[in-house]
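Researcher: Predict the fold of Gamma-butyrobetaine,2-oxoglutarate dioxygenase.
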Amino acid sequence: MSAPMTQIILTDTGLSVPLAAGETYFNYCWLRDVCPSCIDPQTRERIFDVASLPSLPRARQAHIEGDVLVVDWQSEAQVSRIPLALLESFATRGRAEDPADLPRNLWYADRGASFLRVPQQAVLTDPAARAQLTRALIEDGIAIVTGMDGGKDSLPRLVEAIGPITPSAEGLFFDVRVEIAPTNLAFTAGPLEMHTDLPGEEAAPGVQFLHCLENSVEGGLSLFLDGAAVAEALRQEDPAAFHLLANNKIPFFYRHDNWDYRAHQRVIETDPEGRVTGVTISQHLQDAMDLPQTLLDDYYPAFVKFLKMMQEERFLVRFRSEAGNCVIFDNHRIVHGREGYVADSGKRHLRGCYTDRGALRSTHRVLAYQGFDGRIAPEPDLQRA
Ligand SMILES: [Fe+2]
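Model: Structure tokens for Gamma-butyrobetaine,2-oxoglutarate dioxygenase follow.
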């Protein structure tokens, strides 16, 4: 390797390394902490405590050797060999590589119902198909599993291929059908306005499964939209309204005889980089707003504007839930609803449950490490064929 490429500048607090991304500074504590020797190969947990050193770590000498940065420390008999790939990742992305950190594909009405469809049997037995499903759920936030077998274990077997079932006040599962004494508007035949589920829970469920067991009623089309797409449209059209919804929390509840959940949520959820990661919306589970009344003078018009946008046809996809299908969607991003139906025109029964977003991403990462990244090969170029 040529001399300039290995020139490392040591300072009192850290060092600068020439990387493909350019010369990049790394703090000594951080470098000592990411030394691969800090991780126990058996448990894969951290076995080094930076606070156990008599003084903050400081390099005596450092150089590049092949694809690692070798750091010789001043106050301990320890040499760290840190992969340059890790340093490059932090230099370019600010964080470690993550196969589950995939950009969201925002979608609109013209997407139709062309979401990924994959048979249940493939999800359960073929890691390539399972990876396609987890990738679609991260990128599109929605996918449809077809050919669900009708047994009682059918839904739990599918969920557990993605992650453990997370319970809600209703238990591990809930049934969406007409009930005599409903605990939720979903359990009636009326229309169900666009919403995300259970915002009254401190951590609302992340991924929702709706397995259609039977559907022979007139009407009752399922409605879906990409809340992140609507939020981004609001950001374009009215940045001040977007800012209000992304930076203030409003109260939600879920209340019945034996429970009284309450939580505050941001209607538009963003990550530290300001990217929209989801939305929380549910007028039937929204509590009396408790923002200052004068702030509400600005908040309500923004909120109403966002609710009205969610009714615009440009965002809405509607399709009929077919018996044997299971729709899976990101409950923090995909807003769903239902048109009303004629209760005595037939039977409509959906069974649902949840897992969380962390479990979904975990499954996707493990599949990626096994060589299944879920990418679907592009269609052959017909013009060239
Ligand atoms: Fe729902």
